[in-house]
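F.,

This is the one I mentioned.
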């Protein structure tokens, strides 16, 4: 008779069978995952076959997100620019000033949004905030701005749907979505790494410097907070990053997406029900359990990363240790610390591995504390009939296998000076129980080790 699975019992989250099969259960969703011996030896990355030398303009004009193609994307809402060591954000520029500065990161509306502005208006009577409407009016009053928006409308709407519709009517009916929509994209400057010789050398999260990555994260948080502030009907803002086409990216150009939705989402609802029952849930069944299983791969004062379990794809989980739940309420040091660990994980995974970065945070209308956490899922397998029929997912890399791939690379990157200071790796990590301070019942002072007896 086989071993019974008892949900809610920690030992059931990760079990190794006699033949080496590893069975996992997500403590948050109940998802069942098996890792079968012999299926995890395949390479992770996608090798570029016959890479092509980069021609003139490749660094600035390869895709619609590149810096020579600003007019192929909707009018930007804001950008981050750099002046020496000084970084700052600039609100939406008029069209004649788009090329005044080099944008390190741009926030632009998604041309093909998941939830359109019409959705919010039809279902909730949503109105664009007056400052946004004033900016739209000013932008459209400029002939170049009007032509820019009109061209985008004609790109978005098939000819059959606009047959017999004049330009003024198209602008009146569709321009709003390019200024007041709630699905944004945060786009990085580079398509290829600086100095790249061929088209295999894409610029990813992990190829940014830790400093650059921290501004990428800050800008995303700033944009997320703005979406909440401007749409009172938004109950959740989903933040995610699709890297490479197998992970769902339209362009192999670094970008994040932020989507305001009018529901919390299934994941948040499942977690909420469990967090109400156990306020220390994220410590007990995630970080603490991972440390007892030796799955922690990196840690600094503000964040901790471990190989995840119970996921459909091999997954790294990064938790903020902050006592604050909402990312926009984190201190500058906490945001930088979280960014540094996220960056380290991306760098260790490598730019040739398709992956999704997913953010999870406490919805604003929830009274239960939840830590901000980021999951990086490696899209190295394809779901098939077995998974669909059984709802048991075959994951080609076990949590231990993922740890053993990531940790050596982290040591290499640190030796090369590519990681931020202060990051401890694997056995160097303190792995202090209950290190996530979101739960006041287990919160301690800055020196957590004082809560434990000394061995000296």
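My design for it:
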């Amino acid at each position: 008779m086989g071993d019974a699975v008892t949900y809610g019992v920690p030992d059931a989250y990760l079990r190794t069978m006699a033949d080496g099969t590893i069975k996992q259960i997500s403590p948050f969703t109940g998802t069942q995952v098996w890792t079968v011996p012999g299926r995890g030896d395949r390479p992770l990355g996608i090798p570029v076959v016959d890479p092509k030398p980069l021609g003139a303009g490749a660094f600035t004009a390869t895709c619609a997100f590149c810096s020579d193609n600003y007019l192929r994307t909707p009018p930007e809402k804001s950008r981050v620019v750099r002046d020496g060591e000084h970084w700052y954000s600039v609100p939406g520029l008029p069209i004649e000033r788009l090329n005044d500065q080099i944008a390190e990161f741009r926030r632009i509306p998604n041309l093909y949004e998941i939830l359109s502005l019409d959705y919010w208006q039809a279902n909730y009577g949503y109105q664009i905030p007056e400052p946004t409407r004033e900016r739209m009016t000013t932008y459209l009053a400029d002939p170049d701005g009007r032509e820019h928006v009109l061209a985008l409308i004609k790109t978005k709407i098939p000819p059959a749907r606009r047959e017999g519709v004049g330009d003024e009517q198209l602008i009146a009916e569709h321009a709003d979505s390019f200024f007041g929509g709630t699905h944004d994209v945060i786009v990085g400057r580079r398509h290829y790494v600086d100095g790249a010789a061929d088209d295999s050398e894409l610029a990813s999260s992990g190829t940014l410097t830790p400093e650059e990555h921290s501004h990428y994260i800050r800008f995303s948080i700033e944009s997320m907070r703005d979406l909440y502030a401007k749409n009172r009907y938004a109950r959740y803002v989903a933040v995610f990053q699709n890297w490479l086409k197998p992970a769902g990216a339209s362009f192999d150009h670094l970008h994040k997406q932020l989507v305001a939705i009018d529901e919390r989402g299934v994941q948040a609802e499942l977690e909420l029900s469990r967090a109400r029952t156990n306020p220390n849930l994220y410590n007990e069944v995630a970080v603490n359990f991972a440390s007892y299983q030796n799955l922690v791969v990196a840690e600094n004062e503000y964040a901790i990363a471990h190989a995840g379990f119970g996921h459909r794809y091999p997954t790294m989980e990064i938790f903020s240790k902050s006592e604050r739940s909402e990312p926009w309420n984190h201190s500058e040091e906490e945001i930088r610390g979280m960014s540094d660990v996220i960056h380290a994980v991306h760098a260790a995974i490598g730019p040739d591995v398709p992956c999704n970065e997913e953010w999870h945070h406490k919805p604003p209308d929830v009274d239960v504390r939840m830590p901000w956490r980021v999951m990086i899922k490696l899209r190295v397998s394809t779901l098939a009939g077995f998974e669909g029929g059984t709802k048991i997912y075959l994951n080609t890399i076990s949590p231990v296998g993922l740890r053993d791939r990531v940790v050596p690379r982290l040591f290499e990157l640190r030796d090369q000076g590519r990681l931020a200071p202060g990051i401890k790796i694997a056995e160097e990590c303190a792995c202090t129980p209950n290190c996530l301070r979101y739960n006041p019942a287990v919160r301690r002072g800055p020196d957590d080790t004082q809560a434990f007896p000394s061995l000296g």
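Residues 210-230 form the longest helix (21 residues).

Talk soon.
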